Amino acid sequence: MLxxxxxxxxxxxxxxxxxxxxxxxxxxxxxxxxVVAGPAxxxxxxxxxxxxxxxxxxxxxxxxxxxxxxxxxxxxTDAVAKSSNDGYTLLFTYAAAHVVNPVLLxxxxxxVNKDFTAIAQIGAGGNLLVVHPSIPVKDxxxxxxxxxxxxxxxxxxxxxxxGSGGHLSMEALKQQAGLQIKHIPYKSTVAVNNDVMAGxxxxxxxxxxxxxxxxxxGKLKPIAISGTQRIKALPDIKTMSExxxxxxxxxxxxxxxxxxxxxxxxxxxxxxxxxxxxxxxxAERWNTLGMSSMPIKSxxxxxxxxxxxxxxxxxxxxxxxxxxD
Length: 325
Fold this sequence. Notes:
The chain folds into 2 domains: 6-125 and 250-319, D-Maltodextrin-Binding Protein, domain 2, CATH 3.40.190; 127-243, Periplasmic binding protein-like II (D-Maltodextrin-Binding Protein, domain 2), CATH 3.40.190. It is 45% helix and 18% strand. The chain has 13 helices and 10 strands. The protein has helices at 2-25, 43-59, 74-81, 95-99, 101-104, 112-115, 140-148, 165-177, 189-198, 208-216, 263-278, 283-288, 299-319, and strands spanning 32-36, 63-67, 89-94, 116-125, 127-131, 156-159, 182-185, 203-207, 221-225, 251-258. Strands 2-1-3-10-4 form a 5-stranded mixed sheet, with helices on both faces. The protein is globular.
């Protein structure tokens, strides 16, 4: 009986090789599309191109950026959820897009937990509260006092969409400090930064990667950072929590694949991404892009982080009764 079982296994096993072994061993044998949840020049796009360049050199195939803009990353996320899980379509996104939309919207056309495979977390940090240089404030205490001198909703702030990290960071500040500031959603951090610099809106929470060069040029004034740690590029700018407004959530960038993507491909990508994250020669680059830290996580550890963030960011959405437009 045991002999028959061994024979059956020997006959059946080769039938699995083409899918489980051969296809994975040959991956990638053609270009890999990386759908980016943000426009060219955004913080998401900047980071995506660093990693796609690295992966292309490592694997010897093109990793082609495909920017899909709009709906706080929902358009890009949905496109990847509906893609083949053969390892040739990946999603490069950011925390708020992935873990906030499911609680912000009454219905999304995908399930974050069921339709995606977590590959890697990229960085951890916060969004920068910035104001036009003419605004007479230098820290969060002065910012709160300044806003309270104005009639309700006379002042406005921008973010890169409802439910974005910029939106929720300001809503958390408003909830705790009792502020009334009108929210103006934009399609990108680039557009937000441009309008703050031009004086069309006085303030915004902006993604660090896109805001830091403008801060360095004196075109935006930084007031606070929303993450759990200060940004190394701006060591004197305190976190919201350090300035009396409790906010213990980090923003990050991330790479996902459609659910069912072969484990060998996921692990290969995670390994190479983490190599670049940990590379000593990249440390200063991560600082200039606004990262407070660059944690190294396995796909399983990152998947657990996503589940926690769905819960914690969701609590802010519910407390503020925040709805999509």
